[in-house]
Amino acid sequence: MSFGRPPSISTGFQVTPPDRGSFPLDHYGECRDFMTAYMNCLRNNNNSSTPCRHLNKAYLECRMNKGLMEKDDWKNLGLSNVDKEPKPTKDPAGDKNLS
Q: Residue ranges of region Disordered (predicted)?
């Protein structure tokens, strides 16, 4: 038995693809702006992802377009019903007629 090398080398090393959800790091910061916007949204909403889902979709779309993750259907990612832009919310106070 030799020291300094992993035991798997002597029995044969087999490459396996990463688990679903694991993907390469964005070393060149190609999607940094999308990631920063999403993280800021989470921080501003007490880590609730619901109001930030449109930013999550934009970030994942950037990663898919840049080859940083495998392309997948939005329904498989849980984002099929999310628009790219958030829908404006109505201000209940703004709906009153002051005339």
A: 73-99
